[in-house]
């Protein structure tokens, strides 16, 4: 799952105690930000194995820290401690940590067995990557359904919202239909960071357009 991880962030952003949308967007993908950083320095590992699943050739064979349920829980506590501060355990902090944890459960739906509870086997995954006719509509429905809800409840302007939607759609299309890498390189992580960063920047612009409109209305 790629852009589907942003769906909970868009829903959470409509909550009265929600932090800024870009914060939630980063929280929703924080697990993958961390994975690609650890991949870059060799702490976690993946290889390209064509055919390991129908949709995705990434063989995520060593992810004991970022894709272990207990470690994701630790990561969410780190978010509380260092992003918001333990003494500010507000609704904003709890929402952000919660959405960080939800990443693992969304991955559980689509991954072939490569997720763990505590970094050791058994490895888990329901394998929807092997069923494109289910996974693709599900991811689009989750993401753009959540964006529709956000658009209805926020004051974001139409043009930034369409740009945000378009950027997500383009990156998802590249992920599904673009050329596949034949080996893992430094560029693998750099491309992931660029995609996550540009989508988050588009979310910031969409939210900012609504904030600017609200101030002007006053």
Can you describe this structure?
Helix 2 (21-28) runs antiparallel to helix 8. The N and C termini lie far apart (41 Å). With 218 residues, the chain is mainly alpha-helical. Helices cover 62% and strands 4% of the residues. It has one domain. The model has no long low-confidence stretch (mean pLDDT 88). It has helices at 7-12, 21-28, 30-40, 69-84, 91-110, 132-153, 158-177, 186-217; strands at 45-48, 58-62. 38% of the residues are buried. It has a two-stranded antiparallel ribbon with strand order 1-2.
Quick summary:
The chain is mainly alpha-helical.
Question: Any key phrases for this structure?
Answer:
2 strands; 62% helix; 218 residues; mainly alpha; two-stranded antiparallel ribbon; 8 helices
Task: Give the quaternary arrangement of the chains.
Answer: single chain
Q: What's the count of strands?
A: 2
Strand fraction equals: under 5%
| Gyration radius, rounded | 17 Å
**Low-confidence runs (pLDDT<50, min 5 residues)?**
none
Shape: globular
Strand numbers in spatial order across the main sheet: 1-2
């Amino acid at each position: 799952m790629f852009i589907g991880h942003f769906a909970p962030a868009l829903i959470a952003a409509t909550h009265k105690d929600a932090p800024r949308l870009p914060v939630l967007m980063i929280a929703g993908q924080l697990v993958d930000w961390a994975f690609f950083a650890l991949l870059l320095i060799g702490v976690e590992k993946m290889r390209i194995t064509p055919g390991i699943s129908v949709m995705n050739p990434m063989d995520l064979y060593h992810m004991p820290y970022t894709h272990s349920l207990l470690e994701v829980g630790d990561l969410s506590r780190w978010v509380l401690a260092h992003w918001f501060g333990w003494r500010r355990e507000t609704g904003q902090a709890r929402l952000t940590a919660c959405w960080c944890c939800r990443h693992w459960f969304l991955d559980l739906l689509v991954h072939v067995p490569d997720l763990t509870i505590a970094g050791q086997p058994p490895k888990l995954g329901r394998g929807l990557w092997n069923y494109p006719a289910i996974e693709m509509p599900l991811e689009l429905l989750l993401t753009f359904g959540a964006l529709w809800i956000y658009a209805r409840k926020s004051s974001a302007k139409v043009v930034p919202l369409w740009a945000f939607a378009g950027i997500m759609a383009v990156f998802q299309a590249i992920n599904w239909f673009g050329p596949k890498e034949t080996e893992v390189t430094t560029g693998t992580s750099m491309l992931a960071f660029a995609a996550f960063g540009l989508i988050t920047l588009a979310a910031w612009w969409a939210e900012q357009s609504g904030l600017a409109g609200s101030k002007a209305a006053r």
